[in-house]
Write a structure and sequence with these properties.
The structure is a single chain. The protein is α/β, with parallel strands linked by helices. It has a domain of 66 residues. The chain has 3 helices and 5 strands; from the N terminus they run ααβββαββ. 11% of the residues are buried.
């Protein structure tokens, strides 16, 4: 009973602090962080990488294995949609979402845009 009461109190305290913009969580040990970093290494997928999109922001290296890919979900359009524009040339339809812009800079039938914010709901 005491453990349940402690848990309920801690839950209420965390919720109250979170509603004020503070997040209280446990701390990850340095050993666990180091182990994670050591595991984060590029892996060879057996496919050549190709660049899709622009030279800067909006361009990505992806495996040259797009056969059978029909859709792309792209949160965060901003002022560039070079990646999605190139995908449209490859007959891949993109679903774009970004509340910060009125529309994507490129409008094509292969692109569906929603003026929506995607993120964590606070409140």
């Amino acid at each position: 009973m005491i453990e349940r009461l402690k848990w309920m109190l801690l839950t209420e305290l965390r919720a109250g602090l979170f509603s004020r913009g503070l997040n209280v969580t446990g701390q990850t040990s340095p050993t666990d962080v180091t182990a994670l970093i050591r595991r984060l290494r590029p892996l060879d997928c057996g496919k050549e990488l190709i660049r899709i999109g622009g030279e800067g922001d909006g361009g990505y290296l992806v495996p040259n294995d797009l056969e059978g890919i029909e859709y792309c979900f792209s949160p965060g359009v901003s002022t560039t949609s070079d990646f999605e524009n190139t995908l449209a040339d490859l007959h891949i339809k993109s679903f774009l979402a970004d509340y910060s812009v009125a529309s994507p800079p490129v409008v094509r039938p292969e692109m569906v845009f929603d003026k929506k914010f995607l993120g964590v709901c606070r409140g």
